[in-house]
Design a protein that fits this description.
Distance between the termini: 28 Å
Largest sheet: 5 strands, mixed
Shape: elongated
Number of helices: 6
Radius of gyration: 20 Å
Strand content: 15-25%
Strand order of the largest sheet: 2-9-5-4-3
Structural class: alpha+beta
Order of helices and strands: HEEEEEEEEEHHHHHEE
DNA sequence: CGTGGCCCCTGTGGGC
DNA sequence: TGCCCACAGGGGCCAC
């Protein structure tokens, strides 16, 4: 479920407590969410790849993935899938074990009093997410990050135009492809297309340079505002302290089919594109010839 | 190769 | 009040 804004909001909130810290222990309570450097679910997992005894260099993000970079190279890539989240609390806080908690890291923080530790938990009911271990930069590049397109927060109009020009898919489908733009998912694809006044069923290759430019601007601005708001909590998304993101109330089309377009008052339509629910304004976003297909 | 379809999994909400 | 089905912020793999 989480898209770039949700993941970035989480990253920003775990970074201060974790960057520079050292991982004391990692407990795996569900092995099959962990992938070794070859992408396999099976096999013995060296404790050091889970970070035990190592220092956290930085807390990064690429597209929808959180990257815990470890001193000495490589790191831990966390994909939240549809229902995943990260919970971060002081270890001293006593609380009931959350359902579907699959990994727990105990980390000595550097921005806290010496001796205090934090507990980072990976929780994912549907288990579409997972934790991928990388020995070095090569592992990160090969399997996890190499195929991603430009970051959604920085996507430039000309780059988006070129990437859409080369596809036969409709623009909505292309935006969901992480090799076109990294970080856009179903919510922000619909929001960006509406803001740019482009129908989701338009063939990607039919967009003009000007339209691709509008779309790139919309993507950057909407993702940016959503990050600042802590992401969209529709149902599952939570920040690491358990609180909700605030952007759901500011969505203009996603989840609003049957309501009116805030720009022109037309009733918003909904259909399925690439098996994903898609909402748009039939007035602001002109349908292409032959729509519906 | 690009693309569409199917599958992975649990929880929930709506219709009957 | 159930029960069942459809659907949910994603993406990997497969056959064309």
């Amino acid at each position: 479920m989480p898209e770039l804004p949700e993941v970035e909001a989480i990253r920003r909130r775990i970074e201060p407590a974790l960057a520079g810290g050292s991982i004391q222990r990692c407990i795996v309570t569900r092995r099959d969410v962990v992938r070794d450097p070859l992408g396999r679910r099976t096999g013995r997992i060296p404790r050091s790849l889970l970070g035990e005894g190592r220092r956290l260099d930085s807390i990064d993000r690429r597209g929808k993935q959180v990257i815990l970079r470890l001193t000495g190279g490589g790191g831990i890539v966390i994909r939240l899938g549809m229902s995943g989240r990260l919970d971060l609390r002081p270890s001293s806080l006593r609380r009931r074990t959350p359902d579907h908690r699959h990994l727990t890291w105990t980390i000595r923080s550097v921005d806290r009093d010496p001796g205090t530790t934090m507990r980072l938990e990976f929780i994912d009911p549907r288990r579409f997410g997972g934790v991928h271990l990388a020995r070095d930069e090569q592992d990160l590049e090969d399997r996890l990050l190499g195929r991603l397109g430009p970051e959604g927060l920085q996507i430039a109009g000309p780059a988006l135009f070129e990437r859409l020009a080369g596809t036969r898919r409709v623009v909505k489908t292309a935006l969901l492809d992480q090799s076109v733009v990294a970080g856009v998912g179903n919510i922000y694809a619909d929001e960006s297309l509406h803001a740019a006044r482009i129908h989701p069923g338009r063939p990607g290759s039919s967009l003009t340079r000007s339209e691709a430019g509008r779309l790139a601007t919309a993507i950057r601005e909407i993702l940016g505002r959503a990050v600042e708001a802590g992401g969209s909590t529709i149902r599952d998304h939570r920040l690491p302290d358990g609180s909700e993101g605030g952007f759901a109330a500011r969505l203009t089309v996603y989840g609003r089919a049957g309501s009116t377009c805030e720009r022109c008052g037309t009733i918003l339509e909904e259909s399925r594109i690439s098996a994903r629910s898609t909402t748009w304004c039939p007035t602001c976003q002109h349908a292409p010839e032959g729509w519906p297909p």
